[in-house]
# Entry
Amino acid sequence: MISDITTGNSHIDAKEFRHWFIGDIRRWCAEKGEPFKPEKYKLRNTDNIEFRLGDHKKGEQRAGGWAVCSSSKAVSILIRGDITFKFRDPRDHSNSFTHRLASEGDYVMWKEDVEHWWETGEDSIILTVRWKD
# Structure
């Protein structure tokens, strides 16, 4: 139905939840202690998939250190810029993998049973999608 169309700007909408703009917004609101307003978020609220549009300055690093493991899969796609991802086994930090995204469209995909961290080499925009099987 026409009433089921949601529009917005991902840069603006992503500011509220650490660059995440589609996903389990009900849970994100609860984690922040804020009321969930379905009429505000409309189709952006889903527990099936999450989208993040990161707009990061040169030299920026992932806030909070290493991201912990989860039960999701993820893909990060470079829209513009230069970013290096580092991955490590949470049980053996010497078991690691580093990958640089330097050309528009470069991506890295991972199961979130590893920890990850990133750092930008220049101003960058990254689209990240997470989902569960």
Notes: The chain has a mean pLDDT of 94.
